[in-house]
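Reopening closed ticket. The problem is back. First fold of the pair:
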Amino acid sequence: MDISTKLLISDIERDTGIGKDTLRVWERRYGFPSPVRSSNGERLYSLSDLNRLILMKRLLDVGCRPKQLVSLNEAELATLLSSKGNPASAKIDSSPQNIEGNPQWISMIKRHEFESLRDSLRATIENIGVEKTIMEVLVPLTRQVGEAWLVGELAVYEEHLYTESVSTVLRQSIAKLEVDRPASKALPKVLLTTFPQEMHSLGLLMAECFFGIAQCKTFSLGCSTPLAEIEKAAIELKADIVALSFTAHQRSQDITTGLDHLRSLLPIAVEIWIGGNAPVIQRRKFGPGIKSFSSAQDIIEQVQGWRLARQLLL
């Protein structure tokens, strides 16, 4: 392995969501991953190890077992993932505003025309609004970017550049929604973040846009916040709702255990709203005070319901 591309076990844990202890167990039990050792004994992993482990993590989240996966190469893992109905490889509807109807979107990414991409997204928002742009353009586009990365058509850095470009445009939209928000003490206060080791931010920003459309006051902590800090922020900021985003990278057990623990930490009046493409969110019914959403559009309707319920309590 080229030492210049070395990755520490902490890097692997951060980028895959697979715990260090699990990586060590797989190494002993299955012989993969098989890192080299540095002069001081630290495990050093390759980019190929990282890519295989990312694919393995996605397959684990849809029900596969490690023993089935450790002997497969990247191409075989990607093929298996497609057959499992991975959200990143889902086919995209051919509505007028989506990427198949406007192939220039993906072309801009491949040609590294990210300034043009941002300008086009801003123009689309002006034309059809934030809500439609997210649902008809950004959701399918992000899926196709994930598919292109999965099969090697886009590099990791290109996916990162795409994410940062979209994030810039969404933050500008959020700022405009804040300016247009009415001054009222009746606005729901929403704290947005993700659990530790969840580093994907686009879902969180999309949700923040919908909370903005619903005229909520939002506080975003960004990604990867410890549960104790979520509790502290929710109490200090007097949040009514804690909104969390989960991708398929997060282990189902970590999500359910974390939600149960966070629910026990927060005041009963603070609701927890969750969304994303982690399979467990759609499969499992959660206890009182935790609401799951299949689409960011559901946020607007649910905020209306929250307001009505609060009015009835007054």
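Second fold of the pair, where the issue appears:
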Amino acid sequence: MAVLNNKTTLVTGGGSGIGRATALAFAHEGARVAVADMDPRGGEETCGLIKAAGGEALYIKVDVSKSTEVAAMVARVVEAYGRLDCAFNNAGIMPKGFVPTADLDEETWDRMININLKGVWLSMKYEIPQMVKQGGGVIVNTSSVAGLIGSRTGPAYIASKHGVVGLTRGAALEYAKDNIRVNAVCPFWTSTALTEPYMQQNPQLGEQMAGRTPLGRQGTPEEVATAVVWLCSDGASFINGHALPVDGGVVIA
């Protein structure tokens, strides 16, 4: 039996990469999927893939850094499906270049924090009241290995991803009494549209990143999606406030 049969799920950043893979995995496990993304083309493509496989999907255009749009996103899901059982707050960006702390410009800092951190907070801000109202739910946030360990460059990205882990743990404590579980996934380098520009600039980067993992390879969006589906399932019913590395062992190396 599908582990999310008849559940309503929401994926932000669902138009590509890890978000798309997770939206497809949710649908494969019997869930209705609301695919939220800034890019209508990518979001509609994901919905088309779900529908072509016999699933049910809805596209919602959203900028997760804007409270009015996030509130409208959650309202649209509830209007369409009546409830919200699982939310994967995945929308995020990577820096155009990794620079030291003192060299980072303020505009880049603000944009990174607004999307990667504020966007997760706003999503939870509007998802949680609906889940409280209906008697429970599950939230999974996308952090990163960069949310668990340090790095010599990329201060805004690192700060945003550490912040997601903190938000996750705080919300997990606050809303456990309301039957809401909140966890995070922390992927290492995964081949997606976000990482592709770096690969084009440095064709050896993929091999270098693979060499950093004890398993000796990069991860895939589908592997992260599998972790998210499990965290949303009853199989993870006693997992709360956890930041799960999906990293081939980088954090322990």
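Update: turned out to be a display glitch only; the data is intact. DSSP finds eight helices and seven strands in the chain. The mean pLDDT is 94. Please close again.
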